[in-house]
Amino acid sequence: MIPATTFKGKQVALFGLGGSGLATAKSLVAGGADVVCWDDNPDSVAKARAEGISTQDLRGIDWKSVSTLVLSPGVPLTHPKPHWSVDLAKAEGIEVIGDVEIFARERRAHAPDCPFIAITGTNGKSTTTALIAHILQSSGRDTQLGGNIGRAVLTLDPPKAGRFFVVECSSYQIDLSPTLDPTAGILLNVTPDHLDRHGTIQHYADVKERLVAGSGTAVIGVDDSYSELIADRVERAGGTVTRISKRQPLADGFYNDGHRIIEAHGGGASVIADLNGIQTLRGAHNAQNAAAAIAACLTVGVSPDEVRAGLKSFAGLKHRMQPVGRRGNVVFVNDSKATNAEAAAPALSSYERIYWIAGGLPKEGGIASLAPLFPRIVKAYLIGEAASAFAATLGTAVPYEISGTLAQAVAHAAADTAAEENPVAVMLSPACASFDQYKNFEVRGDAFVGHVAALDGVTMLVDVPTGGN
C-alpha cells in the first residue's frame, strides 16, 4: 500500500467505495488523513464499515472543513451531469481528485526521480501497459504495475529510488488528476468513446491530452487527427515529443515498416526491433503498441538489447489475441476481450486463415463492419444469442455453423482443422458481450482455454485455469 501522507491531518471526503475507492480510503487513513466516506450503494457502505472505514452520508457533513473530495473514477465528474457530491464540493471551492492524483503527489513528495510511465488511449493501452511492465521486469528492474489494469494504484508498493511504476490511465482517471506528471506519458490514439461521460469527442480528446501535456517525454501516436494535433500542441508548448506510427514513415520517431520497428532521428533511420515471429505482437495495432513501449522504455533508461529481449519473451495480455495452444499448423487464440466488432477487427486482421468462433450477447451494429475481413475466415462457429443474426450477416460470404455453445464450437473447429497443412488460427474473438452464457469475458476466455486443453495432441502455451464455467 502507498500511505497518502500528503493528506496527513487534513479532512478528506471520499465518494465511491468500490475496489479502488476502498483502497483509496485505506491509503488515506494510513497516511494520517481524517477521512469520511460514502457510496450510493448500501452494500459498499456496509463493506467499508466492516473494514473499519468511517462512513457518513456526505450530504450531512460540514463541507467548510473539508480540504479535498476524492472521487472514484466510475462516478460522473461532468457528464451527463456532475454527481451530487461534486456539486457540494465545488460550491465550497474544494478540489475534486482521484487516486492517480494522490499517487502523483506521493511520488513527488517521496521519490520524484523514480521512473513513472503512464499510458492512455482509446485502444491498445492495456497491451502496451503490460508489455512495458514485462520489458522492465524481464530486465531485472523493480516494477510496479497498476491503475486501470490489475491493481488499484494505491495498493502498489510506495515510491522509492530505483522503483519503476507503469500505470494505465483511463480518461476518467486523467480527468481527476490535474497534476499528473509521468516521466514518460503515452497517448496511443483517440477515437470516439465514453461520450456519455465526456459529452463530446473534443472534450474526450482534451482530457487525454492532459496526460501527455504534463509528461517529461510525451510519446504520441499520430495516426489519427486528434492525436496528431495534440502532438503538435505539446511540442509548441515546449514539451519533448516522440511520435509513433503504425502505418506511415516518420522523419523523427518510431514507426512500423512491415514487421519491423524503425527508429528515425536526425535524418537517419535504423531497425530498433523486429517483431517477425513474435506471435503475441502480430498486426499493425500491436506494432503501434510495441513502438510506444520501446520509446517509453528507452526514455527511462532501458537498453535497446533489453527492450528486444523483453519483446521476444512477451506472453501477451490475457484474453487479448493470446495464443493459448498449438497443434501442428493450428494455433488456438483467445481473444475473448473483443466484445464488439471494432475490438474483434485487430485479431481478424492479424491472421490469414481463421476458423472463427463468434457470438454471445450482441452489441449494436453486429458484425457488418467486419465484412472486409470475411475473406480471411475459412469457417465461422456461431454461439450464444447472436448466432442467428451473425449467420444472416455472413450469408453466403463465409461458411458457418450454429454451434450454440463454446464447447461445441471448439470441438468442431478442432476437428475441421485436423488435416490443415498450412498455418491457421482457431480464434475466439466473439464481437459480443459474454453475459448470455458467462459472467464476464474473463470467464469466457478461461472456458475457451479449458476446452482447448482438453483436445488431443494440443501443446498448451499458457497455464490452464482451474474451475470456471
From TrEMBL:
Signal peptide: none
Catalytic activity: UDP-N-acetyl-alpha-D-muramoyl-L-alanine + D-glutamate + ATP = UDP-N-acetyl-alpha-D-muramoyl-L-alanyl-D-glutamate + ADP + phosphate + H(+)
InterPro entries reported in the protein's UniProt record: Folylpolyglutamate_synth_CS, Mur-like_cat_sf, Mur_ligase_C, Mur_ligase_C_dom_sf, Mur_ligase_cen, MurD
Coiled-coil regions listed: none
Entry keyword annotation includes ATP-binding: yes
GO cellular component: cytoplasm
One biological process term in Gene Ontology: peptidoglycan biosynthetic process
Gene3D superfamilies from the UniProt entry: Mur ligase, C-terminal domain, Mur-like, catalytic domain, NAD(P)-binding Rossmann-like Domain
Family: Belongs to the MurCDEF family.
Domain Mur ligase central: 119-297
HAMAP family: MurD
Group of enzyme by EC: ligase
Gene Ontology MF term list: ATP binding; tetrahydrofolylpolyglutamate synthase activity; UDP-N-acetylmuramoylalanine-D-glutamate ligase activity
Protein name per the record: UDP-N-acetylmuramoylalanine--D-glutamate ligase
The organism of origin for this protein: Ciceribacter naphthalenivorans
Pathway in which the depicted protein is active: Cell wall biogenesis; peptidoglycan biosynthesis
Keyword terms, alphabetized: ATP-binding, Cell cycle, Cell division, Cell shape, Cell wall biogenesis/degradation, Cytoplasm, Ligase, Nucleotide-binding, Peptidoglycan synthesis
Residue span, Mur ligase C-terminal domain: 319-426
UniProt superkingdom: Bacteria
Pfam families: Mur_ligase_C, Mur_ligase_M
Function, in words: Cell wall formation. Catalyzes the addition of glutamate to the nucleotide precursor UDP-N-acetylmuramoyl-L-alanine (UMA).
Transport recorded as keyword: no
EC number: 6.3.2.9
Location in the cell: Cytoplasm
UniProt-annotated binding residues for ATP: 121-127
